[in-house]
Design a protein that fits this description.
This protein is of the alpha+beta class. Helix content is about 30%, strand content about 25%.
């Protein structure tokens, strides 16, 4: 399996089926050109097509330093349970270490057993209890 960093909106478009919704080219460009934003895509060794992706965002705080936020992980349904998600998380973790991040974190639904198993397999440790507060402003992008 080949994991490559996406650097152009065309790379994102080629992996569109891996996202929750169709990516918009202008948002893809904005994400890819923002400092500290990363998109890694796993490619099938047989046909070269995209079969998984992970996005990460470096976050720096004055009293904590820089950490990697694992924003989203997606694996094509046809390629699940083959270790692709684990390899993507490990690749993002390696990138985080190379970039000087002191750690990495992700928010995940407590009933998403597949995601939880993937994160545990890469050394992730759950911290309980946690809640996420959301503000929705209705504006796109």
């Amino acid at each position: 399996m080949d994991i490559r960093r996406a650097t152009e909106a065309a790379h994102v478009a080629a992996a569109a089926e891996l996202f929750d919704a169709p990516p918009k080219p202008e948002w893809a460009d904005r994400f890819l050109t923002a400092p500290g934003h990363h998109l890694l895509v796993a490619h099938d060794p047989d046909d070269g097509g995209p079969v998984g992706m992970v996005t990460g965002v470096e976050m720096t705080h004055p009293d904590k330093g820089t950490e990697m936020f694992l924003y989203e992980l997606g694996v094509a349904e046809s390629h699940r349970r083959r270790g692709i998600g684990r390899r993507l998380v490990e690749a993002l973790g390696e990138l985080a270490r190379e970039r000087g991040c002191y750690g990495m974190w992700v928010a995940v639904d407590i009933d998403n057993e597949a995601a939880l198993a993937t994160y545990r397999s890469t050394g992730g440790v759950a911290e309980y209890p946690v809640t996420i507060q959301v503000w929705e402003y209705g504006a796109e992008g």
